[in-house]
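Box 3.1. Reading complex inputs
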Amino acid sequence: MSRAGWRVLATPLTAIAVGLGLGGLSGLVVFGDWLGLVAAVLVATAAAVVLVRVATGRPFLPTLAGLVVGPWLLMVAYVPGPEGGRTWLPTPAAWERIGDVATEAVRYANATIAPAEVAPALAAAIAAGAVGMFLLVDAVAVGAGFAATSGFLLLVPWLPALTLERRVPTAALAGALAAWLAVVALSRRHEEAGWRRRAAEGASPAPAHAAAAAVAVTVGVALLATPLAIGGPGWGAMPRVTLPDWLGGTARLDLEIDLRDRLTGQSSTTLLTYTSTVGRLDVLRAYSFTSFDGSRWDRDEPGPTEPAAGVLWPVPFDSWAGIDQESVTVRVNDLSESRVPVPATPRLITAGSGWRYEPATDEVLIDRDQGTQGISYTIRHALFFHSEESLRAAQAAIDAGGDAAVSERYRELSPRIDVERVRALAQGVTVSSTDRYEQAVALQEYLRGSGFQYDTSVSPSGDDAVSTFLTDRRGYCVQFATALVVLARALDIPARLAVGFLGGSPDDTGQFAVTGRDAHAWPELYFPEHGWVRFEPTPGQQTGERPEYAPAPPAAIPRFPEEEDPFGPRASGEPAPPVPTTVPSEQADPGDAASPGIPWVLPVVIVALLAGGALAWSRGRARGGGIRDADGAWQLLRRELGTRAGDDSLTPAETERKILDTCPDLAEHARGGLTALRGAVEDHRYAPHGTSVPTERLIGWAREVTTAVRDADRSARAR
Amino acid sequence: MTSTVPTSEELAAVAELARLVREQLRTVLSGLDEAIDATLATVLAEGHLLLEDVPGVGKTTLARALGRAIDVSVGRIQFTPDLLPSDVTGVSVFRGDEHRFEFRPGPVFANIVVADEINRASPKTQAALLEAMQERSVTVDGETRALPAPFLVIATQNPVDMEGTYPLPEAQRDRFMARIAVGYPSGDDEVAMLDAHDGHDPLVDVVPVATAAALTRAISIVRAVYAAPAVKRYIVDVMRATRDSSDLRLGASPRASLQLLSAAKARAAMAGRDHVLPDDVKALAVPVLAHRVIAGAQARAAGRTADTIIRDVLDAVTVPFSREPAPAGRG
């Protein structure tokens, strides 16, 4: 194979490895037709790189060509033209549209939940990532000759799946691995071909510090940068990292609910499983919280309880037989709670005895040392219990003073909270709402949009954590739920916090498995004659869908204007964000105008990665990582010939004699090469002025001798 | 002269001298190339030589042939128990006619001194010669007289017939740059030797092929041969290994390092090289080191000699791998 030959073969293999790397996204996005266009762009870019490789012998010129062709192809494929056609030239107007697509991609990724349907903008982002990854890997593996090292880069698309313990298509992983190994094998076979002509000979094993640097960078990316990066904006589709259940044993919900704590210790252990006749439950409810001091929630003192018999629901209820029901059988594994997780609608426990029910908190108590651990129970619960109509109808009872049925404490706001601003916000958000239902939906939608970001880490806060959250707009379910409770209470709506689990995900057997990462908190608002109604203000990953009775409002309903938001950027004295000259159609709503912005973590990670790699590489070169002189060529020869080249106590001349002794049939030209190489290495090591023979020729001699010795061995065996 | 490495012409001169002398020695001693080369290297390094072997293998012949091949003054001393120091160094005699003492130089005042059976003389006489070897001068009646340059002592001794001998102590053996065991010739070589000796003394056929001046010049060229740091480190590594070896009761001295390097330089110049190779060091390690070290009791009981132990040491020491920055190197 010619010199160009292996590279022409290695570049498509690299493209295959990168393309199969999309399989690493299988847990995050839904595969569909969009893959075809991504593949086409990748293949076309690879073809351009190959063509330039064939045409020129330069190692990095193809990469430069790819840097031109790839982005152009992306633009043509994904950036719509002014009148719906394609964009062929990067005019200033086209740049704006490119920016729009990028912004839309980030916004979309942020707003979706894994596995996300792929909108064109997200497909464009994925295609751009694939093309960029291909060009980088190709430059490293084929251009620079660091074929093995490029494996670290190829690992990147698989990292989310690895760190999140997601399943990936085995065939894709195996295929990518095979393609990469093929590239490595090709480059090893033609080491003298790359740009790293001398260093690629790699005579001495990689220095320990280089290996350590590579490992450190990889581990650093895997353990530190990836969680950091996917904690940033623009990663809504990405499941959050969960930590293993280090302590083992049974799990418990964290009832020390403090808005100032970041979310940690979510376990992927299955806590309970259930079978359901109609599908996934919205939530499984365990605890409720009433008192909020501005940053912490406190449990109530236990109230009066009754045996958990009959239909359990805090408000009088008489038409149980007339509504849709389903039966759920729950099996609890390692979850030791004093409250039994139950659906959040009226329910009838058909198996399980000795349990008690507390109507005030709507909790089912189990009096057992191990709590819920290991129990099984079956529950019938009401389906479609709440509806928009029935909740709207409750307004009459509210107007009639129906809230008096519940404690005044559900409307209390701690003096630590900036009540005036919160109330101004709540009233502003609900200014066009005509009843409690609309108020609740408006508050829910305000928190699901308006630039609020799901984030397991939270900003440092004082006693008024809700104001901090409403300003910073970063938090997890507890912050979102608490904010809605506080906003509702500011409107004099009885509200409280409920804690339990989301419905989990189905496993292979059709059961639903609820893990530690399904732990959830949500707000409940009181509707007279209905009871406590769940709303879902938490956007992003860690959330249930909006309840079916509180869907996203049609876009016609005006959202709360950003500039009137007492916690908004303008109110807090910061300059208003620049108004985009062209507003993408999805962003027509002013309430959604605060775009998530560029994920800053990404460039930082990339820069750190490149800097670390460059540092390790330069240090490796500085300390002689590869073949740079006659010694390197000599060591290469000795390593290739193994024991027949003798040990370290032999001088070059003795080694030469030993090789000739053990290989009497060595071809004449190889003998000449061996003698010349020996002389050069002697001169290099011991003569006052070293050797003037070019390293390439020395390596050539070493290869010549190695090949000739093997040929002689083969013919000797043949005889 | 010594600040730069020898030119190729200078090296060619040394190599030519060595080649001519070697040819002359071969006419009297067949099949002893290794001994001859070690001898020449020692001579060119201006070192003293101890030829040690059983009688009759050609020790004295080699010494005498060397003296003849190089056109220099040769002194010959047959050591006997009654030999006095003044028989070696010379003596002052009173010249009545001139009313003064006149110094009569002993046989030591020669370019090459052949000291036959040195271990038969009394320690006092041995000491006189050994002092001359070390100082390259002789002090008689309070007057120090320089010995001619070059000055080489080629001593022979018989290690077997030990009765009535005074073996050289270690400190004095250390003054010899090399000890060469001449060894028996092979069958063919012995036949060739019988042919050569058939009817006449082959020593007669040895003709001078080099002058004292040429030898002096060759010696100064040899001194200028370049030794890379890697080679020096190799020598030091070998020395350390002998000192650390559990088989040796006494390892090699620092003087041995110096002399090994000098001899290696000579061997390099003989090959026309301007730099020393570890091969030079290896080739001369046994002649230069074996007579200075003392094998331990266990090693002796196991039938191992200083020679084999030194060879084992060489097989264990790593030849320095990388080129180190040298002052005169290419940087």
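In summary: Residues 191-206, 241-250, 570-599 of chain A have pLDDT under 50 and may be disordered.
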